[in-house]
Amino acid sequence: MFDKYSVFSVLREALRGHTGWKPAWRDAEPAPQYDVVIVGGGGHGLATAYYLAKHYDVGRIAVVEKGWLGNGSIGRNTTIIRSNYMLPGNIPFYEMSLKLWEGLEQDINYNAMVSQRGVLNIYHSDAQRDAYARRGNAMRLHGVDAELLDLDALKSMVPYLDYENARFPIQGALLQKRGGTVRHDAVAWGYARAADRLGVDIIQNCEVTGIKIEHGRATGVETSRGTINAGKIGLACAGNSSRVAAMAGIRLPIESHALQAFVSEALKPLIDNVITFGAGHFYISQSDKGGLVFGGDIDGYNSYASRGNLPTIEDVCEGGMALMPMIGRARLVRHWGGIMDMTMDGSPIIDKSPVEGLYLNAGWCYGGFKATPGSGWCFAHLIARDEPHEAAAAYRLDRFARGYVIDEKGVGATPNLH
Ligand SMILES: Cc1cc2nc3c(=O)[nH]c(=O)nc-3n(C[C@H](O)[C@H](O)[C@H](O)COP(=O)(O)OP(=O)(O)OC[C@H]3O[C@@H](n4cnc5c(N)ncnc54)[C@H](O)[C@@H]3O)c2cc1C
Description:
By secondary structure, the chain is α/β, with parallel strands linked by helices.
């Protein structure tokens, strides 16, 4: 049924008026029983199903999605990928993920527009430079590329920043050249198509409303389209992790917040890289269509709504103006919100749950897009083998109770205990 995408298939279809393209994946009906059911058809759920089908012999697999593929954060993020982390629990995992991005398009035969255009973290003080030098050194010790740029090097690379009159004077930047951007919704479509080709059933418009537990073991999911029995169940519900885990009686150390993204009118090519502001929460890149794509901090209150509020918009735009005042002349044409599952230490969870047969992939905060391939692979490994992949061994659920948090930058949410 499926064609391989190639220059020849594009030419063939161009000659016959694009009448021969087939649907990229089947619209599967739920079967009564699967060996593995993945809840959540976002990037992580689809990648998990793909790597399970490709590398692990686990039998029949389904991905159950309450809406349509790409409705969640996989289609709402600001598309940045990088592995410029500092702590031992994080660097090997995010570097594994970045390496998977580098070969992803060939692997899944899908153009996800992976663009390693470089990520620049700007620093504005001596103390911040020292912190970035330390981060860069930690990366290099793990074999990850990192360069500390001084002011002259940064000026020659990015001449248009406000170096003269900036409210927060710019001193230099930490550069990861292999970081960049990937077209976010293409990642969902590409993984869906590739998983479907390996026999995975992708079931959209099918909301999980309950988790069946018999004698302490998860045995299936109740859904808006009936009961689906399962040998193993993997939760990859991102912003809704705590709600779905609660169906199995599990209280996760997670709070959900909205994060907003913004796109300007299309401009001629201006920003070649991804740039993050070091004196406020603002980051920016330019899409291939010309829009400036930018974002900032999460909205400061808990919410499951995919929309944010006006004070955050003002705060993000102020951050942008402080770094590059000229963008104040561009018109903002679109913005939206997505739901972030914020853990208390800012790092994710890929682990077995306290309920046998139920596995957790959660807590991606505002950085889970870059993790998509690595997370999918490591979660598939955990589900298939019942033991953690070595790259994700630190992402245990019990670290919060034991005090072994992976507090990369103090970015965890402030717990709201009432
Ligand atoms: C504005 C914004 C900017 C971001 N920028 C970046 C960035 O630049 N770089 C980066 O690395 N990360 C970024 N992120 C974070 C990243 O997008 C997320 O961490 C990541 O996408 C979450 O994993 P996912 O793709 O599986 O989530 P999702 O796409 O949200 O997938 C979860 C799925 O679970 C489904 N689901 C929920 N409940 C149920 C249920 N009961 N039954 C069935 N299905 C259910 C949802 O419908 C959803 O489709 C950003 C996020 C946002 C919102």
